[in-house]
Amino acid sequence: MEVAPGVHLVLAPNANAWTFEGTNTWILTRAGDAIVVDPGPDDPAHLDVIDAVVKSARARVREVVLTHHHGDHSQAARPLAARWKAPINPRVQRGIVAEGTRFDVGTLEARSMRTPGHTSDGISLVLPTERLVLTGDTVIARVNSYIGHPDGTLSDMLGSMQRLAQVADDDWTFLPGHGPVVREPRRYVADRTSDRMRRVEQVAAHAHRGWSSAEIARNLHPRLDERRLRAAQASIEAILHYLDVHTPERT
Description:
- By secondary structure, the protein is of the alpha/beta class.
- Helix content is 37%, strand content 19%.
- A six-stranded mixed beta sheet has the order 1-2-3-4-5-6, with helices on one face. It has a five-stranded mixed beta sheet with strand order 7-8-9-10-11, covered by helices on one side.
- The N and C termini lie far apart (51 Å).
């Protein structure tokens, strides 16, 4: 699906409770070049669809770009790069893409912006002319993104969301790592931030009673299975760390 001239979405076939409909693979094409952002799981059929989109644009993959290191976004990076003899950026696992790195494709301008929080290595790609931002998992449609503490932190996530809101006003569009595109991004950031801070207040109240992160997770998420409960616990630990930093009287 082409969401804007030269900006294509390929939905990976890895739908589950973590990825929702699946991982969004974004392909930027212009003037015979292509960049693939978050190629997703190592699934040959998915790679074939990516190839077909690139070839239909009469392009070649010049580079594979990862918004962060999680496997649902990065597993296909090596096999896709091998197919096209293209480099991967970042070039090492958990590498950090420098702020402002240019990923222009022909006349399609794209530059990186550091957006840690979900992970420590998170980036977004800003396309100023198209008024689009590829957000990776800093933004997920409909819900707040999981924070993988200690690699990710709530302080970083809140800061990254505010940076995104400063770059993109409400006539821009977020192209997230999972789920449909997000319109009115500043309103989205405000809503999601308010929701996060309500959860911070809930966790703080439970922590004041002496509850552990595991106890808080079970209380706030009574219906989650054990695996997803561990993820919820990691996000709660991120909140507890945030409270320790911002309310020193707790420590």
